Amino acid sequence: MLGVGNLACSRGDHRLFSGLNLTLHAGQIMQVQGENGKGKTSLLRTLCGFLQPDEGKISWCGTDVRELGEEYFANLLYLGHHNAIKDELSALENLRISAGLSGIVLDENQAITALRRMGLKGRERLPTKVLSQGQRRRVALARLLVGDAKLWVLDEPLTALDVGAVALIEELLGEHLSKQGMVIFTTHQPLTIKGVEIARLALL
Amino acid sequence: MNRLSIINLLVLVVRRDLLLAMRRRADVLTILVFFILIVSLFPLGVGPEMDMLRKMAPGVLWVAALLASMLSLGRLFSADYLDGTLEQMMLAPQSLSVLVLGKMISHWVVSGLPLVLMAPVLGLQFDMSPEALLVLMLGLLLGTPVLSMLGAIGAALTLGLRGGGVLLSLLVLPLCIPVLIFGSGAVEAVSSGLSVTSNLSLIAALLMLCLVFTPWVTAQALRISME
Fold first, then answer.
1. Dihedral pair phi/psi, residue A120, rounded to 5°
2. What's the domain count of chain B?
3. Chain A partners within 8 Å of B96 (Cβ)
4. Which of A101, A131, A136 best probes binding to B when mutated, by most B CB atoms within 10 angstroms?
5. Which residue range(s) make up the domain with B180?
């Protein structure tokens, strides 16, 4: 369970939000809404520990995440604006390395299966610099298929994706929630998951 | 689900960075060519006076190695920073220091080790004796990792800054002075028939000190730079 209490965050002298409270239980999904510049990305980055909040506390299963440290990171999967993939490496190498960085050993067949499910059949061994933006995003999103992180923090996961890929992501989110996972995300595109109500958090 | 141990993670990072370096070979060659050019300019500029060249050799080779290792430092973290990989590294369920150590090791293999191997060939231009060449290589072997590790702290502190390259050199070069003094001191000692143990031991001590502290310091600096 992720808990946020009385969180305040600012960039420079500008206060983005304050007194923010939220709780996310197993099997719940939450969309962070707000206009550009209202602090959606900052909120997600604060949850990942990249930014230090001005005030307030973030807790995982009741314990402050700063005390948990790496134990919390093992439960966390973050996908930001950047794809975190290397142009010089193939989709396969990229996926295996990024899984490795999050502590997961992935053999070649598992990686290929994941990439095929993301619709990258026949592109697994090409250097990612020859892939399109949407295909690179798919390579990055393939990380959702490997690993066992409980909490997914997704910042605009749908950028550059086509209709088919959006449907696939909706399906993946549904599967993750049914396995008692948690998701907190931002998007400006419509996203619906069958049989699940998406909680909404508005940053004003 | 299989989990990676600390050693496996270290190996993964080193292999990844070496693989990336192999795919961008031009970057590696640039450093080596720069080193060769700088060193070769001195005999041309100073003239073919053997005595003087022999005296200058250790200093010239060490300064050139220092400058060459500065060249690639800017790229140590910036590529990973720009494409978001650094964020993922910070979320690794192992200590960030281990990942940083891995990056330092591969940086040394790519930009330090070639200098060590090339130095004796260049030393011949300065009419250095075989013993002096051996000591030079030993000194560089112990000293270049120190340059990579100290440089990593500077690279982490200047990450994402405009004009970071110059600032990086200003930060790191003064810190490298001890290595320079002991390294060229060792070669001078062997040339004048003295023992080299003290100089080399001091570089080795610096290396050990850096191994213990710099990964942690660099990791902290990276966390600050990411905000």
1. -115, 30
2. 1
3. none
4. A101
5. 3-226
